[in-house]
Amino acid sequence: MDVRSDMLRRLRNRRGGYSLEQPFYIDPDYFRLDLELIWYRDWLFVGHDCELPKPGSYFTVQIGAYPVVVVRDREGMIRAFHNSCRHRGSRVCTAEKGTSARLVCPYHQWTYDLDGRLVFARQMADDFDASQFGLKPVACESAGGYIFICLAETPADFAPFRAMMEPYFLPHRLKEAKVAFESTIVEKGNWKLVWENNRECYHCAANHPELCKTFPEAPTVTGVQGAMEDPEIVAHWEKCEAGGLPSTFRIADDGQFRMTRVPLLRDAVSYTMTGKRAVTKNLSDTVAEDRIGSLLLYHYPTTWNHILGDHAVTFRVLPISATETAVTTKWLVHKDAIEGVDYDLAELTHVWTETNDQDRRIVEENAFGIHSPAYEPGPYSEIHEGGVAQFVDWYCRFIEPRLSESETPALRSVA
Ligand code: FES
Ligand SMILES: [Fe+2]
User: Fold this and answer.
1) pLDDT tens string 157-194
2) What is the number of the ligand 1 atom nearest to the C-alpha of 121?
3) Which residues, in sequence order, are CB contacts of 181 under 8 Å at separation 6+?
4) Predicted confidence (pLDDT) per residue in 99-138, tens digit
5) Whole-angstrom Cα distance, residue 197 to residue 204?
6) Ligand 2 center to residue 334 CA distance, Å?
7) Considering every ligand atom, which ligand is closest to the CA of 122?
8) Among the four 148, 196, 306, 310, which has the fewest Cβ within 10 Å?
9) 44-150 is classed in which CATH architecture?
Protein backbone atom coordinates (compact mmCIF):
# COMPACT_ATOMS: atom_id res chain seq x y z
CA MET A 1 0.00 0.00 0.00
CA ASP A 2 1.40 3.44 -0.83
CA VAL A 3 2.02 5.83 2.01
CA ARG A 4 -0.90 8.15 1.18
CA SER A 5 -3.39 5.31 1.27
CA ASP A 6 -1.79 3.99 4.43
CA MET A 7 -2.09 7.35 6.17
CA LEU A 8 -5.63 7.81 4.94
CA ARG A 9 -6.64 4.39 6.21
CA ARG A 10 -5.19 5.10 9.63
CA LEU A 11 -6.93 8.49 9.77
CA ARG A 12 -10.27 6.95 8.84
CA ASN A 13 -9.87 4.19 11.41
CA ARG A 14 -8.62 6.57 14.07
CA ARG A 15 -10.05 6.25 17.53
CA GLY A 16 -11.21 9.74 18.62
CA GLY A 17 -9.84 11.00 21.93
CA TYR A 18 -6.74 8.84 21.57
CA SER A 19 -3.19 9.69 20.55
CA LEU A 20 -2.20 8.92 16.97
CA GLU A 21 -0.68 5.72 15.68
CA GLN A 22 3.10 5.33 15.67
CA PRO A 23 3.92 6.30 12.05
CA PHE A 24 2.43 9.78 12.54
CA TYR A 25 5.18 10.47 15.05
CA ILE A 26 8.21 8.68 13.63
CA ASP A 27 7.84 7.72 9.96
CA PRO A 28 9.88 9.80 7.44
CA ASP A 29 7.29 9.16 4.70
CA TYR A 30 4.48 10.43 6.93
CA PHE A 31 6.68 13.43 7.74
CA ARG A 32 7.05 14.18 4.02
CA LEU A 33 3.26 14.16 3.73
CA ASP A 34 3.00 16.52 6.72
CA LEU A 35 5.37 18.89 4.93
CA GLU A 36 3.61 18.65 1.61
CA LEU A 37 0.04 18.82 2.87
CA ILE A 38 0.31 21.05 5.96
CA TRP A 39 3.58 22.97 6.07
CA TYR A 40 3.71 23.80 2.35
CA ARG A 41 0.04 24.80 2.33
CA ASP A 42 -0.79 26.76 5.47
CA TRP A 43 0.14 30.16 6.80
CA LEU A 44 3.25 29.96 8.95
CA PHE A 45 4.53 32.43 11.55
CA VAL A 46 8.17 33.18 10.79
CA GLY A 47 9.16 36.27 12.79
CA HIS A 48 8.22 39.74 13.97
CA ASP A 49 7.98 43.06 12.11
CA CYS A 50 10.30 44.59 14.72
CA GLU A 51 13.06 42.20 13.65
CA LEU A 52 13.14 44.04 10.32
CA PRO A 53 13.67 47.57 11.61
CA LYS A 54 14.70 49.27 8.33
CA PRO A 55 14.79 48.82 4.56
CA GLY A 56 17.20 46.02 3.73
CA SER A 57 16.76 44.23 7.08
CA TYR A 58 16.18 40.55 6.42
CA PHE A 59 16.03 37.17 8.11
CA THR A 60 16.07 33.68 6.65
CA VAL A 61 14.04 30.63 7.56
CA GLN A 62 13.95 27.04 6.42
CA ILE A 63 10.56 25.36 5.93
CA GLY A 64 11.20 21.71 5.06
CA ALA A 65 13.03 21.84 1.74
CA TYR A 66 12.32 25.53 1.16
CA PRO A 67 14.83 28.21 2.16
CA VAL A 68 12.99 31.54 2.40
CA VAL A 69 14.21 35.08 2.97
CA VAL A 70 11.97 37.72 4.53
CA VAL A 71 13.01 41.32 3.86
CA ARG A 72 11.80 44.87 4.36
CA ASP A 73 11.86 46.72 1.04
CA ARG A 74 12.62 50.37 0.36
CA GLU A 75 8.98 51.37 0.82
CA GLY A 76 8.88 49.64 4.21
CA MET A 77 6.82 46.72 2.97
CA ILE A 78 7.70 43.25 4.25
CA ARG A 79 8.19 40.71 1.47
CA ALA A 80 9.23 37.07 1.32
CA PHE A 81 11.10 35.27 -1.46
CA HIS A 82 12.35 31.81 -2.20
CA ASN A 83 15.98 32.05 -1.15
CA SER A 84 17.26 30.33 -4.27
CA CYS A 85 19.15 32.27 -6.93
CA ARG A 86 17.57 32.38 -10.39
CA HIS A 87 21.01 31.81 -11.93
CA ARG A 88 21.96 28.33 -10.76
CA GLY A 89 20.03 28.05 -7.55
CA SER A 90 22.51 28.98 -4.83
CA ARG A 91 21.13 30.36 -1.58
CA VAL A 92 21.23 34.12 -1.97
CA CYS A 93 21.12 35.08 1.72
CA THR A 94 23.18 32.71 3.82
CA ALA A 95 23.07 34.49 7.19
CA GLU A 96 20.23 34.00 9.69
CA LYS A 97 19.67 37.74 9.66
CA GLY A 98 21.30 40.88 8.42
CA THR A 99 20.92 44.16 6.57
CA SER A 100 21.80 44.68 2.95
CA ALA A 101 21.02 47.41 0.42
CA ARG A 102 20.50 44.68 -2.19
CA LEU A 103 20.43 40.90 -2.06
CA VAL A 104 23.63 39.65 -3.68
CA CYS A 105 24.13 35.98 -4.46
CA PRO A 106 27.53 34.93 -3.13
CA TYR A 107 28.17 32.53 -6.04
CA HIS A 108 28.37 34.83 -9.11
CA GLN A 109 27.02 38.04 -7.60
CA TRP A 110 23.69 38.20 -9.33
CA THR A 111 22.11 41.11 -7.51
CA TYR A 112 18.45 41.51 -6.59
CA ASP A 113 16.67 44.63 -5.43
CA LEU A 114 14.72 44.41 -2.18
CA ASP A 115 11.53 43.91 -4.20
CA GLY A 116 13.04 40.77 -5.76
CA ARG A 117 13.87 42.22 -9.21
CA LEU A 118 17.16 41.07 -10.72
CA VAL A 119 19.09 44.30 -11.24
CA PHE A 120 22.58 43.03 -12.07
CA ALA A 121 23.89 39.86 -13.71
CA ARG A 122 27.48 40.11 -14.83
CA GLN A 123 28.44 39.38 -18.45
CA MET A 124 25.35 37.59 -19.62
CA ALA A 125 24.43 37.47 -23.32
CA ASP A 126 23.13 40.66 -24.96
CA ASP A 127 19.64 39.26 -25.27
CA PHE A 128 19.50 38.19 -21.60
CA ASP A 129 16.22 39.47 -20.15
CA ALA A 130 16.77 40.17 -16.46
CA SER A 131 13.07 40.82 -15.93
CA GLN A 132 12.45 37.08 -16.30
CA PHE A 133 14.75 36.15 -13.44
CA GLY A 134 13.52 37.93 -10.33
CA LEU A 135 13.44 36.06 -7.03
CA LYS A 136 10.27 34.00 -6.76
CA PRO A 137 7.86 35.56 -4.29
CA VAL A 138 6.35 33.78 -1.33
CA ALA A 139 3.01 35.01 0.03
CA CYS A 140 3.66 37.21 3.04
CA GLU A 141 1.36 39.05 5.48
CA SER A 142 1.89 40.81 8.73
CA ALA A 143 -0.68 41.24 11.50
CA GLY A 144 -0.27 42.77 14.93
CA GLY A 145 3.52 42.54 14.75
CA TYR A 146 3.63 38.94 13.47
CA ILE A 147 4.91 38.02 9.99
CA PHE A 148 3.34 35.00 8.33
CA ILE A 149 4.30 33.36 5.05
CA CYS A 150 2.54 30.76 2.93
CA LEU A 151 4.28 28.59 0.34
CA ALA A 152 1.09 27.59 -1.44
CA GLU A 153 0.32 28.79 -4.93
CA THR A 154 -3.10 29.92 -3.74
CA PRO A 155 -2.89 30.68 -0.03
CA ALA A 156 -5.94 30.46 2.20
CA ASP A 157 -7.54 33.81 2.98
CA PHE A 158 -5.45 35.51 5.68
CA ALA A 159 -8.14 38.12 6.40
CA PRO A 160 -10.16 36.15 9.00
CA PHE A 161 -7.07 35.67 11.15
CA ARG A 162 -6.11 39.32 10.86
CA ALA A 163 -9.65 40.45 11.67
CA MET A 164 -9.79 38.32 14.81
CA MET A 165 -6.22 38.85 15.97
CA GLU A 166 -5.52 42.54 15.49
CA PRO A 167 -8.01 43.96 18.00
CA TYR A 168 -6.39 41.77 20.66
CA PHE A 169 -2.81 42.48 19.66
CA LEU A 170 -2.59 46.04 18.37
CA PRO A 171 -2.88 47.60 21.87
CA HIS A 172 0.29 45.72 22.84
CA ARG A 173 2.26 47.42 20.06
CA LEU A 174 4.49 44.50 19.24
CA LYS A 175 5.44 46.18 15.97
CA GLU A 176 7.33 48.74 18.02
CA ALA A 177 8.86 46.33 20.51
CA LYS A 178 12.31 44.79 20.37
CA VAL A 179 13.55 41.27 20.83
CA ALA A 180 15.55 41.29 24.07
CA PHE A 181 16.62 37.67 23.68
CA GLU A 182 15.94 34.66 21.53
CA SER A 183 16.82 31.01 21.80
CA THR A 184 16.34 28.03 19.52
CA ILE A 185 16.31 24.51 20.88
CA VAL A 186 16.01 21.33 18.87
CA GLU A 187 13.69 18.80 20.46
CA LYS A 188 14.15 15.19 19.40
CA GLY A 189 10.49 14.59 18.73
CA ASN A 190 7.94 15.01 15.96
CA TRP A 191 6.39 18.47 15.64
CA LYS A 192 2.99 17.07 16.63
CA LEU A 193 4.41 15.85 19.95
CA VAL A 194 5.71 19.37 20.61
CA TRP A 195 2.20 20.67 20.03
CA GLU A 196 0.44 17.97 22.01
CA ASN A 197 2.65 18.78 24.95
CA ASN A 198 1.96 22.48 24.57
CA ARG A 199 -1.80 22.05 24.48
CA GLU A 200 -2.20 20.71 27.99
CA CYS A 201 -1.04 21.50 31.49
CA TYR A 202 -1.80 18.03 32.83
CA HIS A 203 1.98 17.69 33.03
CA CYS A 204 2.70 21.11 34.53
CA ALA A 205 2.54 20.50 38.30
CA ALA A 206 5.01 17.63 38.15
CA ASN A 207 7.38 19.18 35.60
CA HIS A 208 7.31 22.98 35.70
CA PRO A 209 8.05 24.27 39.22
CA GLU A 210 9.08 27.72 37.91
CA LEU A 211 6.14 28.25 35.55
CA CYS A 212 3.64 26.97 38.12
CA LYS A 213 4.47 29.87 40.43
CA THR A 214 2.51 32.15 38.13
CA PHE A 215 0.71 30.23 35.37
CA PRO A 216 -2.53 28.41 36.20
CA GLU A 217 -2.69 24.76 35.23
CA ALA A 218 -6.50 24.87 34.95
CA PRO A 219 -7.76 23.24 31.74
CA THR A 220 -10.02 26.27 31.25
CA VAL A 221 -6.79 28.22 30.70
CA THR A 222 -4.78 25.83 28.57
CA GLY A 223 -7.55 24.00 26.77
CA VAL A 224 -10.38 25.07 24.57
CA GLN A 225 -13.22 24.03 26.81
CA GLY A 226 -14.98 25.60 29.73
CA ALA A 227 -13.44 29.10 29.78
CA MET A 228 -16.90 30.71 29.51
CA GLU A 229 -18.00 28.82 32.64
CA ASP A 230 -14.97 29.73 34.72
CA PRO A 231 -16.07 32.74 36.83
CA GLU A 232 -12.52 33.83 37.55
CA ILE A 233 -11.70 33.99 33.85
CA VAL A 234 -14.95 35.71 32.96
CA ALA A 235 -14.33 38.34 35.66
CA HIS A 236 -10.82 38.84 34.25
CA TRP A 237 -12.22 39.38 30.75
CA GLU A 238 -14.72 41.91 32.04
CA LYS A 239 -12.05 43.84 33.89
CA CYS A 240 -9.66 43.88 30.93
CA GLU A 241 -12.35 44.71 28.39
CA ALA A 242 -13.51 47.62 30.58
CA GLY A 243 -9.91 48.83 30.26
CA GLY A 244 -10.11 48.60 26.46
CA LEU A 245 -8.39 45.24 25.94
CA PRO A 246 -10.33 42.62 23.97
CA SER A 247 -10.03 39.46 26.04
CA THR A 248 -12.80 36.91 25.59
CA PHE A 249 -12.13 33.45 24.19
CA ARG A 250 -12.30 33.32 20.39
CA ILE A 251 -11.47 30.45 18.11
CA ALA A 252 -11.48 30.03 14.33
CA ASP A 253 -14.33 27.93 12.93
CA ASP A 254 -11.80 25.36 11.74
CA GLY A 255 -9.88 25.43 15.02
CA GLN A 256 -6.59 26.62 13.49
CA PHE A 257 -6.16 29.62 15.78
CA ARG A 258 -7.44 30.77 19.11
CA MET A 259 -6.93 33.77 21.36
CA THR A 260 -7.98 34.57 24.91
CA ARG A 261 -6.69 36.49 27.88
CA VAL A 262 -6.23 34.60 31.13
CA PRO A 263 -5.39 35.73 34.67
CA LEU A 264 -2.14 34.66 36.28
CA LEU A 265 -2.10 33.12 39.74
CA ARG A 266 -2.78 35.29 42.78
CA ASP A 267 -1.31 38.76 42.28
CA ALA A 268 1.32 37.72 39.71
CA VAL A 269 1.84 40.11 36.79
CA SER A 270 4.70 38.40 34.95
CA TYR A 271 6.51 35.10 34.42
CA THR A 272 9.14 35.58 37.11
CA MET A 273 9.95 33.56 40.21
CA THR A 274 8.31 36.21 42.39
CA GLY A 275 5.42 36.97 40.04
CA LYS A 276 6.55 40.59 39.99
CA ARG A 277 7.32 42.34 36.75
CA ALA A 278 10.56 41.52 34.97
CA VAL A 279 10.71 44.80 33.06
CA THR A 280 10.12 48.16 34.70
CA LYS A 281 8.90 49.69 31.42
CA ASN A 282 5.53 48.52 30.13
CA LEU A 283 5.62 46.61 26.85
CA SER A 284 3.12 49.04 25.37
CA ASP A 285 2.78 52.78 26.00
CA THR A 286 -0.98 52.43 25.74
CA VAL A 287 -1.48 49.61 28.26
CA ALA A 288 -0.84 51.03 31.71
CA GLU A 289 -2.69 48.42 33.80
CA ASP A 290 -0.47 45.75 35.32
CA ARG A 291 -2.92 43.00 36.14
CA ILE A 292 -3.85 42.01 32.62
CA GLY A 293 -2.64 38.42 32.95
CA SER A 294 -1.51 36.81 29.73
CA LEU A 295 -2.96 37.11 26.24
CA LEU A 296 -2.68 33.66 24.70
CA LEU A 297 -2.58 33.00 20.99
CA TYR A 298 -1.93 29.84 19.10
CA HIS A 299 -1.91 29.43 15.34
CA TYR A 300 -1.32 25.89 14.06
CA PRO A 301 1.17 24.65 13.09
CA THR A 302 3.77 27.29 13.98
CA THR A 303 3.13 29.45 17.01
CA TRP A 304 1.92 29.87 20.57
CA ASN A 305 2.28 33.10 22.52
CA HIS A 306 2.00 34.81 25.89
CA ILE A 307 1.60 38.60 25.93
CA LEU A 308 1.98 40.19 29.38
CA GLY A 309 1.97 43.79 30.58
CA ASP A 310 5.74 44.07 30.80
CA HIS A 311 6.93 41.69 28.07
CA ALA A 312 5.85 39.08 25.55
CA VAL A 313 7.12 35.56 24.98
CA THR A 314 6.55 34.17 21.48
CA PHE A 315 7.24 30.70 20.19
CA ARG A 316 7.88 29.36 16.70
CA VAL A 317 7.77 25.68 15.86
CA LEU A 318 9.53 24.43 12.72
CA PRO A 319 9.84 20.79 11.70
CA ILE A 320 13.29 19.44 10.88
CA SER A 321 12.62 15.74 10.40
CA ALA A 322 10.13 13.11 11.54
CA THR A 323 11.89 13.08 14.89
CA GLU A 324 13.33 16.59 15.29
CA THR A 325 11.65 19.95 15.79
CA ALA A 326 13.16 23.40 16.28
CA VAL A 327 11.45 25.63 18.85
CA THR A 328 12.46 29.29 18.79
CA THR A 329 11.48 31.47 21.75
CA LYS A 330 11.66 35.28 21.69
CA TRP A 331 11.31 37.64 24.61
CA LEU A 332 9.97 41.02 23.47
CA VAL A 333 10.17 44.20 25.52
CA HIS A 334 9.50 47.91 24.93
CA LYS A 335 11.96 49.19 22.34
CA ASP A 336 13.37 51.72 24.79
CA ALA A 337 13.82 49.27 27.64
CA ILE A 338 17.51 48.95 28.48
CA GLU A 339 19.10 45.73 29.64
CA GLY A 340 20.64 46.11 33.07
CA VAL A 341 18.54 49.21 33.74
CA ASP A 342 14.94 48.28 32.98
CA TYR A 343 15.39 44.52 33.13
CA ASP A 344 17.82 41.85 34.11
CA LEU A 345 18.13 39.45 31.18
CA ALA A 346 18.62 36.37 33.35
CA GLU A 347 15.49 37.18 35.36
CA LEU A 348 13.47 37.98 32.23
CA THR A 349 14.31 34.68 30.56
CA HIS A 350 14.65 32.31 33.52
CA VAL A 351 11.15 30.84 33.79
CA TRP A 352 10.67 30.02 30.10
CA THR A 353 14.25 28.88 29.58
CA GLU A 354 13.71 26.32 32.34
CA THR A 355 10.21 25.49 31.12
CA ASN A 356 11.41 24.99 27.54
CA ASP A 357 14.14 22.65 28.68
CA GLN A 358 11.69 20.69 30.81
CA ASP A 359 9.30 20.46 27.86
CA ARG A 360 12.14 19.37 25.59
CA ARG A 361 12.89 16.46 27.91
CA ILE A 362 9.20 15.56 28.13
CA VAL A 363 8.83 15.54 24.34
CA GLU A 364 12.01 13.50 23.90
CA GLU A 365 10.88 10.89 26.43
CA ASN A 366 7.48 10.80 24.77
CA ALA A 367 9.14 10.21 21.39
CA PHE A 368 11.45 7.59 22.86
CA GLY A 369 8.54 5.55 24.16
CA ILE A 370 6.54 5.91 20.96
CA HIS A 371 9.40 4.26 19.05
CA SER A 372 8.68 1.04 20.96
CA PRO A 373 6.95 -1.66 18.92
CA ALA A 374 4.74 -2.03 22.00
CA TYR A 375 3.37 1.54 21.68
CA GLU A 376 -0.29 1.90 20.89
CA PRO A 377 -2.47 5.02 20.97
CA GLY A 378 -3.65 5.91 24.48
CA PRO A 379 -6.63 7.93 25.77
CA TYR A 380 -6.49 11.66 26.48
CA SER A 381 -7.85 12.93 29.80
CA GLU A 382 -11.20 14.51 29.04
CA ILE A 383 -10.71 16.95 31.87
CA HIS A 384 -7.13 18.02 31.17
CA GLU A 385 -6.34 17.18 27.58
CA GLY A 386 -9.22 18.71 25.65
CA GLY A 387 -6.66 21.01 24.03
CA VAL A 388 -4.59 18.06 22.85
CA ALA A 389 -7.63 16.34 21.37
CA GLN A 390 -8.53 19.63 19.67
CA PHE A 391 -5.05 19.90 18.14
CA VAL A 392 -5.05 16.31 16.89
CA ASP A 393 -8.58 16.74 15.51
CA TRP A 394 -7.43 19.88 13.70
CA TYR A 395 -4.47 18.02 12.19
CA CYS A 396 -6.61 15.10 11.03
CA ARG A 397 -9.34 17.37 9.69
CA PHE A 398 -6.83 19.42 7.68
CA ILE A 399 -4.73 16.62 6.28
CA GLU A 400 -7.37 14.02 5.45
CA PRO A 401 -9.14 15.83 2.58
CA ARG A 402 -5.81 16.93 1.16
CA LEU A 403 -4.62 13.34 1.16
CA SER A 404 -7.68 12.31 -0.76
CA GLU A 405 -7.00 14.79 -3.55
CA SER A 406 -5.72 12.97 -6.59
CA GLU A 407 -2.78 15.20 -7.27
CA THR A 408 -0.63 17.71 -5.46
CA PRO A 409 -1.42 21.26 -6.54
CA ALA A 410 1.51 23.08 -8.08
CA LEU A 411 3.39 25.17 -5.58
CA ARG A 412 3.88 28.86 -6.13
CA SER A 413 6.24 29.03 -9.04
CA VAL A 414 5.89 32.25 -10.98
CA ALA A 415 7.91 35.37 -10.25
S1 FES B 1 23.99 30.86 -8.48
FE2 FES B 1 23.57 32.88 -7.84
S3 FES B 1 24.82 34.09 -9.07
FE4 FES B 1 25.22 32.10 -9.78
FE1 LIG C 1 5.13 22.08 29.48
Assistant:
1) 999 999 999 999 999 999 999 999 999 999 999 999 99
2) 3
3) 330, 331, 345, 348, 349
4) 999 999 999 999 999 999 999 999 999 999 999 999 999 9
5) 10
6) 27
7) 1
8) 306
9) 3-layer Sandwich (2.102)
